[in-house]
Design brief:
Elements (H helix, E strand, L loop, with lengths): L7 E3 L4 H10 L3 E4 L5 H6 L7 E4 L9 E3 L3 E5 L4 H6 L1 H6 L1 H8 L4 H6 L2 H5 L12 H6 L28 H6 L4 E6 L2 E6 L19 E8 L6 E7 L10 E10 L2 E10 L6 E2 L13 H14 L10 H23 L1
Parallel strand pairs: 1-3, 2-3
Antiparallel strand pairs: 4-5, 5-8, 6-7, 6-8, 9-10, 10-11, 11-12
Helix pairs in contact: 10-11
This protein binds flavin-adenine dinucleotide and iron/sulfur cluster.
Flavin-adenine dinucleotide (FAD) binds next to strand 2, helix 2, helix 7 and strand 8.
């Protein structure tokens, strides 16, 4: 690990001040819990000269029930998201995913904003400076080739945040603040399929809050992940699912995926399952559909084909559980 260089740490108390401080800094960076970012600084991956600390901004710290919608501040810590009765009631998968991030101590200071804006990960990138230098770096930072797909010019580093796929199930929107004011975009539009540049928000934009409309009818949902160390690890594959049955047939089905591509995404082509009974044959077909869409690359020490199979297996497990809880 590298020593921390000289840094200026700012403590703004409003969103607008945070954005101004960022704009004024020559190489500034937003800092929330720091559970991911500071690791990258110590590895020499990030080299900011100023950090704009976000956790004194009151507006970003609360979970609010606004009737039809719930607003979750970007600075809400994952432990509070996991323990929130409101979130558990309306968006069970979101609470569950928050409770599956890293280990208990990370969830005490890791925030929702940091989780959604997490950098992508790759076994050739999340390494010490000397390790990366010894391998001539890679396309994502300072290098000429991608060690995962050496012939191409694309980075496949995987987005590995747990909470995003669960929020995608519910069409969450994010509120962003920048020098030109505030805007709201669908969470799905916060991401692009490029491991080198996977966030569409500009560098000076701040994620202030997430807004999620409550489903009109109760909706069973859940999240499962596979990881190397069960007590504290990023997902090799993570699957969020929501399902509703009507008269014993699937009436609503969504599946969100993480850890298997540069962006979290909702699986497509699931309409064919609507109207079918969730019997074993149907759910195994769903498993295969998810497996075929989880196009993991060699970005972890665990082989891609295992992560693809595991994504399918997690989907099957979730579908069985949600179908049983619906009936
Ligand atoms: C050992 C270990 C295991 C981990 N396991 C997991 C895991 O299983 N699942 C998982 O999802 N994560 C995991 N993490 C990563 C991290 O702990 C969490 O993702 C956490 O939620 C990050 O939040 P943070 O507030 O600490 O973010 P920070 O580290 O402060 O920030 C992360 C990035 O987001 C940006 N950012 C933060 N807040 C905002 C905002 N409001 N607006 C705009 N940009 C913002 C920062 O500038 C930075 O680029 C792990 C980390 C470690 C060290
Ligand atoms: S996928 Fe390739 S370019 Fe991207 S971080 Fe890994 S080795 Fe680097």
């Amino acid at each position: 690990m590298e020593l921390l260089s000289n840094l200026t740490l700012y403590h703004p108390s409003s969103v607008e001040d945070a954005v101004s401080l960022y704009s004024a800094a020559s190489n500034g960076h937003y800092l929330a819990g720091g559970s991911d970012f500071l690791v990258n600084v110590r590895r020499g991956i990030e080299q900011p000269d100023s950090l704009i600390y976000l956790n004194n901004i009151a507006e970003m710290q609360a979970i609010k029930d606004a009737g039809d919608t719930i607003t979750i501040g970007g600075g809400v810590i994952l432990r509070d998201l996991d323990n929130s009765a409101l979130i558990q009631k309306h968006f069970a998968a979101v609470a569950r995913a928050a409770g599956e991030v890293a280990g208990p101590s990370h969830r005490e200071y890791g925030t929702l904003g940091g989780n959604l804006c997490l950098d992508t990960r790759c076994v050739f990138y999340n390494q010490s400076e000397w390790w990366r230098a010894a391998n001539n770096y890679c396309l994502k930072s300072r290098g000429e080739i991608c060690h995962v797909a050496p012939g191409g010019k694309k980075c496949f580093a995987a987005f590995s945040g747990d909470v995003a796929p669960a929020l995608l199930l519910f069409d969450a929107e994010v509120e962003l603040a920048g020098p030109n004011g505030r805007r709201r975009v669908a969470l799905a539009d916060l991401y692009r399929n490029d491991g080198m540049d996977h966030l569409t928000l500009s560098k000076d934009e701040l994620l202030v809050a997430v807004h999620v409309a409550k489903p009109s009818a109760p909706m069973a949902s859940d999240y499962e992940k596979s990881r190397v160390r069960g007590s504290i690890d990023f997902p090799l594959a993570g699957v969020a699912m929501r399902m509703a049955l009507h008269d014993g047939k699937i009436a609503d089905l969504r599946v969100g995926l993480t850890g298997v591509s540069p962006l979290p995404f909702l699986a497509g082509k699931l309409d064919k399952f609507i109207g079918r009974a969730p019997d074993q044959a149907c759910l195994e077909e769903l498993r295969d559909a998810i497996r075929s869409q989880a196009k993991a690359m060699k970005t972890t020490v665990t082989p891609p084909h295992y992560r693809r199979r595991v994504a399918g297996a997690l989907a099957l497990k979730l579908a069985q559980q949600l179908a049983a809880s619906n009936s």
